[in-house]
Design brief:
By secondary structure, the chain is of the alpha/beta class. The chain is built from 12 helices and 11 strands. Strand 1 (99-105) and strand 2 (111-117) form a beta hairpin. Mean pLDDT is 87; it is low at 1-9 and 388-408. It binds S-adenosyl-L-homocysteine (SAH) and iron/sulfur cluster. Residues 150, 152-154, 157, 159-160, 209-210, 243, 263, 384 line the site of iron/sulfur cluster.
């Protein structure tokens, strides 16, 4: 396959390559998993093993319940499904979710799972993606990946330097939620829901990949996540972050109805072209128009604008003022993200004082401007640091990162 250029390549050719980059194929296993199928697809899967039409709706409901409320990992657990049908299901399907290749726990409690997905060709190394869980006092946020790697090449993002790119299936995206609930013991059991609130209460599509370049799969997975009879996460607690794939922004509001976050990062096209090369295709003006028209945006459902703080690049107070001017009229919040360093990057994080001054300008203009606390830096779990172990860090690089995380 063609190499995806890294951030050091000139953005125009990076963008040209973006359109040419062939995606790796997903190869379905001989015995497919039922995880990630819509109700209609689940109905078809049951029909294929001879479940009579009059029974199908009820059986779909039962399987759905076991999958997404109880977290069943084997058909044998589905005690209200007749044994012959469980056996038939078992003969043709699985309840497989992505396999956990490793689990890391940060000094701050953040957990990162490296997940292994089937390779394109038999005998090849599996594809690896990451999924991160961030516990906070009032919520637990799960950060999901939508692609192995990313075809885009934002110059400050570690994921963008990964070569292999494959779209995840709906089952692999929704499956990350199942894996997290498995590992955290966050399922409803026969004794009822666990005490206290649910550990996974929020979802952000902010892991590896550009979700709007894998729109259908992301949509189908998020519809499962928000289905009231199963995982039942409110759409207001699901946020999709995009680097600005304008044609799919409206569809996100229309077809998924989740909260939108936009990776803006610069207020001028010349700089944004460099930081987010996709800007050459969809410049700031078009992007902001799509935000103005985002279905369901209101003061109660604001769009988040993400802005990574890069020292001496985009962090002047003039930038802050221009940011406020640009966002006028859009129900917005601004999320300032301290740049998370990774080995080999040419950027530094802005000084804390500068971030505070920048934040004051934004705040005084009436926007909430929380600074995102970096979480899990020591295990490379923070924003933009995700890159699977296909290209492993040396032990020394890991130590350097851990040291950075401890001195914050
Ligand atoms: N591809 C999507 C979602 C994944 S990235 C997008 O770009 O929006 C999630 C967020 O992390 C984005 O706002 C992204 O710009 C930001 N990010 C990427 N690399 C980063 C880094 N090294 N430090 C801080 N934030 C970063
Ligand atoms: Fe891809 Fe988002 Fe990273 Fe850009 S910031 S390279 S779109 S994952």
């Amino acid at each position: 396959m063609t190499d995806v250029p890294t951030g050091s390549v000139d953005p125009a050719s990076a963008l040209a390559a973006l359109e040419k980059t062939p995606l790796e194929r997903f190869v379905a296993p001989a015995k497919p998993s039922l995880v990630g199928l819509s109700r209609a697809e689940l109905g078809d899967a049951l029909a294929a093993i001879g479940v009579a039409e009059r029974e199908r709706k009820m059986r779909v409901q039962q399987v759905w319940h076991w999958l997404y409320l109880r977290g069943a990992r084997a058909f044998a657990e589905m005690t209200n499904v007749a044994k012959p049908m469980r056996d038939a299901l078992d003969a043709h399907y699985t309840l497989a979710r992505p396999e956990v290749a490793s689990e890391q726990v940060s000094v701050d409690g953040t957990r990162k799972w490296l997940l292994s997905l089937p390779a394109t060709n038999p005998g090849e190394a599996p594809h690896l993606v990451e999924c991160v869980y961030i516990p906070e006092t009032d919520r637990g946020t799960l950060c999901l990946s939508s692609q192995v790697g990313c075809t885009l090449t934002c110059s400050f993002c570690h994921t963008g330097t990964q070569r292999l790119v494959r779209n995840l299936t709906p089952g692999e995206i929704a499956g990350q939620i199942l894996v997290a609930r498995d590992r955290l013991g966050d399922w409803v059991t026969a004794a009822g829901p666990r005490e206290g609130s649910r550990l996974v209460s929020n979802i952000v599509m902010m892991g590896m990949g550009e979700p709007l370049y894998n729109f259908e799969a992301v949509r189908d997975a998020l519809l499962i996540a928000s289905d009231g009879d199963g995982l039942a996460l409110s759409r207001r607690r699901i946020t999709l972050s995009t680097s600005g794939v304008v044609p799919n922004i409206h569809r996100t509001g229309d077809e998924i109805g989740v909260m939108l976050a936009v990776s803006l990062h610069a207020v001028r096209d010349d700089l944004r072209n460099e930081l987010v090369p996709l800007n050459r295709k969809y410049p700031i003006k078009e992007l902001l128009k799509a935000c103005r028209d985002y279905p369901g945006a209101s003061n109660a459902r604001r769009i988040t604008f993400e802005y990574v703080m890069l020292k001496g690049i985009n962090d002047s107070l003039a930038d802050a003022k221009e940011l406020v001017r640009l966002l006028k009229g859009i129900p917005a919040k601004i999320n300032l993200i301290p740049f998370n360093p990774w080995p080999g990057t040419r950027y530094d994080c802005s000084d804390w004082e500068q971030i505070e001054k920048f934040s004051d300008v934004v705040f005084n203009a009436g926007y909430s401007s929380p600074v995102r606390t970096p979480r899990g830096r020591d295990i490379l779990a923070a924003c933009g640091q995700l890159k699977s172990a296909t290209e492993k860090l040396s032990a020394r690089e890991r130590l350097a990162l851990r040291a950075m995380a401890m001195t914050d």
